[in-house]
Amino acid sequence: MSGAAPHTAVYLAHADDFAGLVALLTPEEHIRARAIALPAPRRRYVAARALVRTVLAARLGAPPQALTFALGPYGKPYLVGLDVPFNLSHTGDHLALAVGNGPVGVDLEEVRPLQNSHAMLQTALGPLERERLQRLPPAQHLAAFYRAWACKEAILKAQGVGLTYDLHAVQLTVPADLHAAPVPEQGPEGPFGPWQLFLHWVHPTRVLALASTGPGITLIPVQTVEDREGRWIIHPAAAVLERR
Asked: Using an 8 Å Cβ cutoff, are 21 and 46 in contact?
């Protein structure tokens, strides 16, 4: 393969900006939305489907309603008939959609107190990871835990297996710098070797992790989209936040 592979694009959005695009959903998605009893989760479902459809439609030059999706064996969505790898994550009203040139997995986590910290640490981290985490200052333990969780979930989503995989089978380094991405030491590998992990704190209490086969990540905050003569145009909320 000649030339550098393109960065994975991660579109960041808020549910408020996409929840009104309910007309873009398919009849089946309308049925699923109506089956969600609580207003907030229903609104987030509509926003997530609208974000995926508008962003992918804009990239492909196709009507959002024309895109057909199916689920892989472990529930990961993919575009039928088109090789456009993507992955979606959300925490509360905040959405992240990764679109890559190869398999991708993204996870967005809000740092919040753990209900049962001992059980969560035992579930998510292996013995060596827990030992490494304990070496960090106590004030960093919670953020470091969510960083590890986000990175592990991103790897498993890129692999297409999600949380059906044993989290202990994925072992990561635990960098002292909370802004540094861990390095996978053990676990499933991508099609070209170990997954590349990228990390970004999009807010002091919100961490985004991306696993991909590409060389970097471009973060694109998206506020609105526009249907202009049959072409969907993405309007960034601001300039690209980070390119590395």
From this structure: yes
Report the distance separating Cα 34 and Cα 77, nearest Å. Answer: 20
What is the C-alpha separation between 162 and 75, in angstroms, rounded? 8
pLDDT tens for 155-170 read 999 998 877 778 888 9
Q: For the domain with range 103-213, which CATH number is right: 3.40.640.10, 3.90.470.20, 3.30.200.20, 3.40.1280.10?
A: 3.90.470.20
Give the Cα separation of 199 and 207 in Å (integer): 7
Name the band, by pLDDT with cuts 50, 70 and 90, for residue 6.
Answer: low
The CATH number that domain 13-101+222-235 falls under is 3.90.470.20
**For the stretch 92-126, what's the b/e string if a residue is b when 16 or more beta carbons lie within 10 angstroms of its beta carbon?**
eebbbbbbbbebbbbbbbebeeeeeeeeebeebbb
